[in-house]
Amino acid sequence: MKVLDLIDKLHRENDLTKTELIYILDHITETEKEVLFKYSLETKQEYYGDTVYMRGLIEFTNYCVRNCNYCGIRRDQEEAERYRLSKEQIMQCCDQGYWLGYRTFVLQGGEDPFFTDDLLVDIISSIKSRWPDVAVTMSIGERTKDSYKKLKDAGADRYLLRHETANEALYESIHENMKLSSRKSCLYDIREIGFQVGAGFMVGIPGQTNEILAEDLIFLKGLNPHMVGIGPFIPHEKTPLAGTTGGTVEETLVMLALTRLMIPSVLLPSTTALGTLDGKGREKALKVGANVVMPNLSPTNVREKYELYQDKICTGDEAAHCRQCIEGRINSVGFEVDMGRGDHDGWRK
Ligand code: SAH
Prior knowledge:
It contains 14 helices and 9 strands. The chain has helices at residues 3-13, 18-27, 30-48, 87-99, 117-130, 145-153, 168-174, 180-193, 210-223, 249-262, 272-277, 281-287, 300-303, 319-332; strands at 51-54, 56-61, 104-109, 135-139, 158-160, 196-203, 227-232, 292-293, 336-338. Bound molecules: S-adenosyl-L-homocysteine. S-adenosyl-L-homocysteine binds next to loops.
């Protein structure tokens, strides 16, 4: 096998076997990466041209009942200063975001039982009735199918639930009392209900191998989600994974490019975690086929508290500043901002 032949095949057929993917990951050289990155960028341009979609991120609660080993807002992280935004505060974030031009709001949080179905339905339907032209994305972890359905019926358009890793043993070793099979069935429920679906994983979790990364790509290919969030794992010192080595920008770029070629029309965010590891990380991701950014709309006084990992960037910046800063970064690498809803092509209401 030759890496370049495999990259060509992936470019032509948008699929490879697990063995072939592992071979690429094990052997790819710097020059071969250039070819991979060229194809992944061209593929993104075929589907989306030079546009990059903007989503306004609202981190509305950092209370969480889960105890994920990597996460800085895990239940047992007693030093995390917990907060919840009220419905009024969430609406204010949206109001400011709408004024700044955002037409997608992503409501993300820990798994917080305070936010019952009724409360979330009220929040979602209030956003949708006040701004009928916006898309609402929820990212609040595992819920019952019935609960997902209520959120959808209230007007939520999309749901992000990273699968985190497609390897069962690794998944279950870093997620106390959680099952990969449950995560997957949530993703299938979300799809069946009619949401635009986002899955995704972290790169560089301790114990992750190239074989496991290949499993992530194969799982994604089968799920065929509308969006895939991929970011480097960044160790947090107040978690069980303190002191471990995290993922790198370089490895993450390879996984972004492979994902773009496996699922050509996918919406692929250039993640904040990349920007945290490298001042130019997000620009680099845009250059290998990412086409979404998610600037922060959370009130500045809670930003530092939503500390999934340390040294998260932009925690002191006003929403208007983030909007301008990201636009400048997008333009600096030759792309243009699209402030529209940015729905996936293959999705119709
Ligand atoms: N509770 C929601 C939202 C989780 S936070 C859910 O379960 O989907 C969003 C994402 O941040 C997670 O899915 C995870 O992939 C990522 N994340 C958490 N801790 C991280 C860390 N230490 N480094 C990098 N990414 C992390």
